[in-house]
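Most newcomers find our protein records easier to grasp once they have seen one. The structure tokens are whole numbers drawn from a learned vocabulary of backbone shapes. The record below serves as our worked example for the rest of this section.
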Amino acid sequence: MTMINLLAIAVTSYLLGSIPNSIILSKMAKGIDIREHGSGNAGGTNVIRVLGFKLGLSVIFLDALKGALAVIVIARLFSGSMPFNNLTPFDDFTLVQIIAGISAVVGHIWTIFAGFKGGKGIATALGMLLIIITIDMLIAVGVFLIVVSISRYISLGSISAAITVPLALFARENIFHVNIPGYHILLPFIIIISLLVILTHRENITRLLKGNESKLNFTKKKK
């Protein structure tokens, strides 16, 4: 029963992550499919470019909420001991939270409700990790804001933030000697999430290297 319970949490978190907020809100607000405009990505950044900050930030908030709800609410459906030997320093519930959070991120990137073509996973990963590693994520958010304000590339800010999270975790544990519970297991999980997010930005990386990535225009008014 415990294995079935854990599988149900992973599937439910995946389905929650699969909710395509950008597609839903763009159709409700303007009657368009956001995937047919701008970069074609079903994420908050593209909504900002095409439909403006208000709608775009709403999408980002809702996408982040998916990751947070997965680790706060859905993970709590788990009861009993793990169906396998937990050899990590984490307690069982923290490990279940990680499984639920990763499932939500995978659902956002490969959503079953939109032909398995979703967003890049930044906002959903943000919501998940803000709950699990709050300090490191706040550092990453700061890096994101600085990079975007200077470069006006949201993609570069997102990639920089993804790289910052494991680096911040490593530095706090090994340089500043902060005792982070479950560090040796948590770090590999964070690295996997960061690499997954960077992988979804591979086209942005190509455009950045070629110098034709779209910049965020803070003054442009959307119709």
The chain has a mean pLDDT of 91. Residues 2-210 form one domain. The chain has one domain: 2-210. The chain is about 65% helix and 0% strand.
